[in-house]
Amino acid sequence: MSNIKLFESTQIRSVWDDKEQKWFFSIADVIEALTYSVNVKDYIKKMRKRDAELNSNWGTFCPPLELMAPDGKRRKTQCANAENVLRIIQSIPSPKAEPFKRWLARVGYERLEEIENPELAAKRMRELYKAKGYSDEWIEKRVRGIAIRDELTNEWKKRGVKEHLEYAILTAEISRATFGMTPSEYKEFKGLEKQRDNLRDHMNDLELIFTMLGELNKIRWRSNKRPICAPYANQET
Question: Are 5 and 131 in contact (CB under 8 A)?
Fold first, then answer.
């Protein structure tokens, strides 16, 4: 289960590990939220250099896990659970350290609530987009699109798609058939320069609808159902 949390208007990508029953958070997102560094990779290198203990345990603290990238592709990203994030924070001189610790505790508690009541997760997602200024109509389409995307990736998994590169190729094909551009080309077309900018969060209502139709048709094609839109009828991906 992947998700996006919001710390003081900054997105923190996260993934829930069912085996360990813990949240894992993107280290790059955490550091950006605490430091506003323009070069997070460089900041991490310098931080590890000045903290020998942290550096020696970095591989253990920060395993690579799959998270959704801004272009809609899933990529291996260094992540850490709450305990190890707190250890990393010790090496970050930031006035936001204490508020972030409290935020981590609240996120953990909210996840326990969502396990008891799954509807809370969807409600909080809507609240997040509402806080960012999106309309109710747009939010409903975005949430529906997320559900369809999850259904599509689950279908791909059933058919043996495992590597994130394969997901990227399949996603690019759908985007090219729908908009005439790959996700990276579409981001450039829209002028989205930051790597963390999520393309779908910058789509209008019609673009979200077309994206949903493209992915839904791919599911229906794989399920031997009649596609909703004719252009997808002859695709075999």
Answer: no
Number of Cβ within a 10 Å radius of residue 175 = 23
Q: What are the tens digits of pLDDT across the range 42-79?
A: 999 999 999 999 999 998 889 999 888 766 677 889 99
Residue with structure tokens 């250890």? Answer: 87
Alpha helices (H) along 90-227: 97-116, 119-131, 136-158, 164-179, 183-190, 205-222
**DSSP 8-state code for residue 233:** T
8 A C-beta contact, residue 97 and residue 88: no
Both tokens of 149, joined, read 């995307």
Asked if pLDDT for residue 26 goes beyond 90, the answer is: yes
Structure tokens at 154: 């689950």
CA pair distance 218, 35, nearest whole angstrom: 41
- Distance (Å, rounded) from C-alpha 130 to C-alpha 71? 22
Question: 118, exposed or middle or buried, with CB in 10 Å at 0-12, 13-18, 19+?
Answer: exposed
Contact 69, 75 (CB under 8 A): yes
Nearest-angstrom CA–CA distance, 125 and 213? 22
Q: Is the pTM of this model over 0.70?
A: no
Q: In terms of Cα–Cα distance, which of 126, 55, 41 is closest to 91?
A: 55
Helix (H) or strand (E) holding 64: strand 64-68
- 207, amino acid identity: E
